[in-house]
């Protein structure tokens, strides 16, 4: 019976849920995003270990409560014990929680040391939060700057219809009526292009695969937060201060993040898109950006990886801005 109760509770919890993917969230997800860095590997391991302890304690307490209710109710135990003190039980319920916390603490400090002992960098990027977009400066490459703005429903619809037709169809709409209509009409465009709505940007930043990347994080105005879940990176961007994180991505692809601090009106419009590519692709992209040829830079990233069609549509939508 107890097993059936646990199974029913699990079914309720996991009904409609999906396990998170690598690089981006999914609707109804449960758990952390997939890992592609050493830091995120440790975070995922720590997360699993702590959840195992929590679930074990919860099941133990549930079993104990059921046992007490069955064994010591008035009908089963009409003459209750008058025991008021048990040294062994009191020692156990004091020592065991302490040992559990010490065990968790050891793993916590190991993870913290990994996060904050920075290996020698192959690339250093300065991420600057602005209201409301990200600027990434490549410190090792003449302070080359890449500004990323979120792609919107408007961008995709303008790409499809053209500016004149877009204004003719949507120009008279205002407020929620406009945003709801744009969302409805753009939804199939996002799906067809296989783009991540509210996460895709006009100009992705690129880094080489298996490179140690240091990210120096600051802000020009209010407090923002630079966070990419699959990298295990999340750090606040504070005006007048520089904080830091690092990652070493071992798999090519695009990895999305967002501003992780409620920074104001367009907080939800500050996504981060990091494309991890082979070194030769990175070199070509770098040369194009240095020449201020962003269209060519987008095309270079569009031709890299297995999702080239989607990236070409990002490049096309960016041109339509």
Structure description:
With 321 residues, this protein is an alpha/beta fold. The protein folds into two domains: 32-116, Orthogonal Bundle (Helix Hairpins), CATH 1.10.287; 123-151 and 195-319, Sandwich (Immunoglobulin-like). Helices cover 45% and strands 20% of the residues. The protein contains nine helices and twelve strands. The chain has helices at residues 2-14, 38-71, 87-116, 153-161, 163-170, 175-193, 279-290, 294-302, 308-319, and strands at residues 18-19, 29-30, 123-130, 133-138, 144-148, 205-208, 213-219, 224-228, 233-237, 243-247, 253-259, 271-277. The strands form three sheets. Strands 5-4-3-7-10 form a five-stranded mixed beta sheet, with no helix packed on it. Strands 6-12-11-8-9 form a five-stranded mixed beta sheet. A hairpin with a 4-residue loop joins strand 8 and strand 9. Helix 4 (153-161) packs across helix 5 and helix 8 (294-302) runs antiparallel to helix 9 (308-319). It starts with a helix and ends with a helix. Residues 8-16 have low confidence and may be disordered.
Defining key terms:
9 helices, 321 residues, Immunoglobulin-like, five-stranded mixed β-sheet, Helix Hairpins, 12 strands, alpha/beta, 2 domains
Percent in strands: 15-25%
The CATH homologous superfamily of the largest domain: Cupredoxins -  blue copper proteins
Helix content: 40-55%
Low-pLDDT runs? 8-16
- Counting structural domains, the number is 2
Give the CATH topology of the largest domain. Answer: Immunoglobulin-like
Rg measurement, Å: 26 Å
What is the helix tally?
A: 9
The computed structural class is alpha/beta
Main β-sheet, spatial strand arrangement: 5-4-3-7-10
Which CATH class of the largest domain applies here?
Mainly Beta
User: What can be said about the biggest beta sheet?
Assistant: 5 strands, mixed
Order of helices and strands: HEEHHEEEHHHEEEEEEEHHH
The CATH architecture of the largest domain can be given as: Sandwich
Distance N to C terminus: 61 Å
Shape descriptor: extended
């Amino acid at each position: 019976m107890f097993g059936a109760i646990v199974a029913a509770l699990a079914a309720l919890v996991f009904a409609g849920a999906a396990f998170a993917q690598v690089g981006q969230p999914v609707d109804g997800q449960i758990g952390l995003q997939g890992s592609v860095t050493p830091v995120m590997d440790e975070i995922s391991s720590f997360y699993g270990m702590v959840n195992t302890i929590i679930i074990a304690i919860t099941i133990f307490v549930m079993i104990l409560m059921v046992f007490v209710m069955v064994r010591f109710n008035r009908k089963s135990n009409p003459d209750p014990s008058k025991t008021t003190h048990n040294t062994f039980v009191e020692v156990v319920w004091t020592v065991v929680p302490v040992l559990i916390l010490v065990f968790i603490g050891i793993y916590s400090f190991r993870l913290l040391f990994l996060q904050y002992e920075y290996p020698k960098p192959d690339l250093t990027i300065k991420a600057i939060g602005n209201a409301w977009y990200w600027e990434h400066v490549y410190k090792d490459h003449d302070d080359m700057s890449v500004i990323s703005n979120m792609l919107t429903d408007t961008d995709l619809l303008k790409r499809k219809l053209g500016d004149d037709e877009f204004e003719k169809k949507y120009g008279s709409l205002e407020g929620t009526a406009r945003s709801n209509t744009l969302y409805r009409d753009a939804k199939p465009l996002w799906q067809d292009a296989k783009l991540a709505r509210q996460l895709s940007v006009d100009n992705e930043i690129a880094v080489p695969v298996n490179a140690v990347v240091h990210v120096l994080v600051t802000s020009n105005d209010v407090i923002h937060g630079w966070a990419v879940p699959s990298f295990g990176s999340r750090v606040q961007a504070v005006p007048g201060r520089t904080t830091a994180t690092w990652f070493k991505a071992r798999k090519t692809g695009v990895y999305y993040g967002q501003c992780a601090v409620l920074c104001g009106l367009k907080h939800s419009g500050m996504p981060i898109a990091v494309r991890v590519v082979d070194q030769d692709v990175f070199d070509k992209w770098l040369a194009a950006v240095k020449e201020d040829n962003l269209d060519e830079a987008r095309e270079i990233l569009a031709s890299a990886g297995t999702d080239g069609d989607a990236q070409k549509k990002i490049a096309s939508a960016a041109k339509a801005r």
